[in-house]
Design a protein that fits this description.
With 273 residues, the protein is mainly α. It has one domain (57-272). Helix content is 85%, strand content 0%. The protein has 9 helices and no strands. The longest helix has 41 residues, at 6-46.
C-alpha cells in the first residue's frame, strides 16, 4: 500500500485548525448574542425604574435623530434620482418607461428607504454611541455611576436605544417621500412624464401595507444599531485605542446585522404586505 502524498497530508493536518477556527467564531458569536440579549432585558427592566430619564431622551432624540436628517435626506434624494435614471433607461427598451414611478415607489417604501437609511444613519449613530459610552467606560465614569447607586443602563443605554427606535421610522418615512420625489424629478426631466401621471402611478402602486412593511423594518433597525452601539461602548477595553477598535467593530456588526435582519423580516412580513 502506497503512503499518502505530502499534499493530502497537509490538508488533513490543516483540518483541525480550520475546525477550531470555526468553533471559535461560533462561540464568539453566541457569547456576544447572549450578552446583547441580556443587556436588552436589562434595558427593558430599566424602563420601569424611577425617575424615567425624559430630559436625556429628548436630548438623544435631537442628537441621534434630528441631526441625522441631512444625511438621510441627501441619501434618499440621489438614490431616487439614480433609480429613475437607471430604471427609466432599462424599461424604455421594453416600452414600459411609464411604470418607472411604480417601481421606484414600491422599491423605496419596502426596501431602500428603511435599509439605506439604517445603514448610513446607523453607522453614524452607532459609532457615535460607542465612542461616547466607550470613552466613559475607559475613564471609569460608568463605574462612578454605579458607585453612586445609579443604573448605567437606565442613564446611558435606555434613552439612546429609545431615541433610535423612535426616530428611525420617521427618518425612513422622510426617505420614502424624498426618494420618490427625487425619482419623479428625474423621470419628468428625462422620460418626459408629466408630474400628475408620475404621482398617479406612485399612489396606485403603493398601499398602506407596503408602507407599514418598511416602517416595521425601520423600527427593528433602530433598535439594532442603538443596542449594538451601547453594548460595544459598555464593553470597551484598552484605553483610547480600544475606543477606536470598538467603534470600527460597531459599524461592521450593525451593517451585517441590518442586512441579515432585513432578509428575515422581509420573509416574515411579505405575506402580510
Amino acid at each position: 500500500m502506497s503512503e499518502p502524498t505530502a499534499e493530502p497530508r497537509k490538508l488533513f493536518s490543516a483540518f483541525p485548525d480550520a475546525l477550531a477556527a470555526i468553533g471559535a467564531v461560533t462561540m464568539g458569536f453566541l457569547s456576544r448574542f447572549g450578552a446583547i440579549s441580556r443587556l436588552t432585558w436589562e434595558t427593558v427592566l430599566s424602563a420601569g425604574m424611577r425617575p424615567f430619564p425624559f430630559r436625556e431622551l429628548i436630548r438623544q432624540i435631537e442628537r441621534l435623530g434630528v441631526q441625522s436628517f441631512s444625511i438621510g435626506f441627501l441619501t434618499a434624494l440621489f438614490t431616487g434620482a439614480v433609480m429613475a435614471l437607471q430604471f427609466g433607461w432599462s424599461l424604455e427598451r421594453f416600452g414600459a418607461s411609464n411604470y418607472v414611478g411604480s417601481v421606484i415607489s414600491v422599491g423605496f417604501v419596502m426596501e431602500l428607504g428603511p435599509v439605506l437609511t439604517a445603514l448610513l444613519v446607523g453607522g453614524r449613530v452607532g459609532a457615535g454611541i460607542t465612542a461616547e459610552i466607550g470613552s466613559m467606560k475607559v475613564t471609569e465614569q460608568i463605574d462612578a455611576i454605579r458607585a453612586m447607586g445609579a443604573s448605567p443602563v437606565q442613564k446611558l443605554v435606555l434613552p439612546r436605544v429609545l431615541a433610535c427606535v423612535l426616530t428611525m421610522p420617521m427618518l425612513a418615512l422622510m426617505a420614502d417621500v424624498v426618494g420618490i420625489t427625487g425619482g419623479g424629478l428625474v423621470a419628468i426631466a428625462e422620460q418626459g412624464l408629466t408630474p400628475s401621471y408620475y404621482f398617479d402611478q406612485v399612489l396606485r402602486s403603493t398601499h398602506i401595507g407596503q408602507v407599514m412593511h418598511g416602517l416595521i423594518k425601520a423600527t427593528f433597525f433602530g433598535f439594532i444599531y442603538g443596542m449594538v452601539g451601547c453594548y460595544e461602548g459598555m464593553h470597551t477595553q484598552g484605553g483610547t485605542a480600544g475606543v477606536g477598535v470598538a467603534t470600527t467593530r460597531t459599524v461592521v456588526i450593525l451593517s451585517i446585522s441590518i442586512l441579515v435582519c432585513d432578509f428575515i423580516l422581509g420573509k416574515m412580513l411579505l405575506p402580510f404586505t
